[in-house]
Amino acid sequence: MHDPDQVRDRLEETGYLVDEGLAVTCFLALRLHRPLFCEGDAGVGKTALASALAEALGAPLIRLQCHEGIDASQALYDWDFPRQLLHLRAAEAAGVSDADRLESELYDRRFLIARPLLQALQTQPSVLLVDEIDRADDEFEAFLLELLSEYSVTIPELGTLRAEVPPVVVLTSNRTREVHDALKRRCLYHWFDHPSFARELAIVRTRLPQVSARLAEQVTALVQALRGAALLKPPGVAETIDWAEALDALGADEVDAELAVQTLGSVLKYREDADRARGLDLAAVLASRGA
């Protein structure tokens, strides 16, 4: 892709709408082979961007879901111990007694289990999604920084494996904790804010073309109002889409306050937030959109 406009067009062809700032950031990430660090609240489209990039590039999406306690063996590679043991027993049964030969055979690449990071280094082209890096610990951040600096890894038994073409790397963070500056400096940064009403409505219409225009507009207005209600977990665009899809599944072409309250479970996931939403004048919100 030769310029930001082409990046935007290709992403929009996949159904992912981007503004000019994000299109420029994605273009630079592709041109400079720099990781893209996406930060923002849950449900604002960070993970979906990686999927859209993979589709636009015609490349496989390789996902590493981070969690507390994740380590290199879970993210990079491991050895297939059961297969190694079977091979050792077969060799012994065949009378093979050369220890050096057995060791070299046991640590052959056929027994190597490639985890997401190694898969991304070995797959050209590919899009590597490191999802929710803020859930990992400092040690894993440092390990990831080293790998992304060289796009290579050294396996003691096999030597150094290097990516011929660096993968497109997207890291996401919900900001449950601050990620170290060293990792952020290695990346291009983009903050994902909640979209404006017009952009969010366009996203809903693009993702759910079967939903009536009136219903899409009403649901978007309701979600925008909920975000201003000091909730524990403000809904993201993903929840807007879920809510519209749920109402459409009920056969609704439009929504009233009663139906909105009945389906709050599609958009709010905390009891306290649902209670606060029930106390809002949802009818007035809908009236402002011509309900």
Defining traits:
about 50% helix, 5-stranded parallel β-sheet, about 290 residues, alpha/beta, 15 helices, about 15% strand, two-stranded antiparallel sheet
Record the SSE blueprint.
Elements: H1 4-13, H2 20-32, E1 36-40, H3 46-57, E2 61-65, H4 72-75, E3 77-79, H5 81-93, H6 99-106, E4 112-114, H7 116-122, E5 127-131, H8 138-150, E6 152-155, E7 159-162, E8 168-173, H9 181-186, E9 188-192, H10 197-207, H11 213-227, H12 237-249, H13 257-262, H14 271-278, H15 282-288
Parallel strand pairs: 1-8, 1-9, 2-5, 5-8
Antiparallel strand pairs: 3-4, 6-7
Could you please describe the fold and organization of this structure?
- The protein is an alpha/beta fold.
- 50% of the residues lie in helices and 14% in strands.
- It contains 15 helices and nine strands.
- The strands form three sheets. A five-stranded parallel β-sheet has the order 2-5-8-1-9, with helices on both faces.
- Helix 1 packs across helix 2, helix 1 crosses helix 3 and helix 11 crosses helix 12.
Short summary:
This protein has helices at 4-13, 20-32, 46-57, 72-75, 81-93, 99-106, 116-122, 138-150, 181-186, 197-207, 213-227, 237-249, 257-262, 271-278, 282-288; strands at 36-40, 61-65, 77-79, 112-114, 127-131, 152-155, 159-162, 168-173, 188-192. It is an alpha/beta fold and 291 residues long.
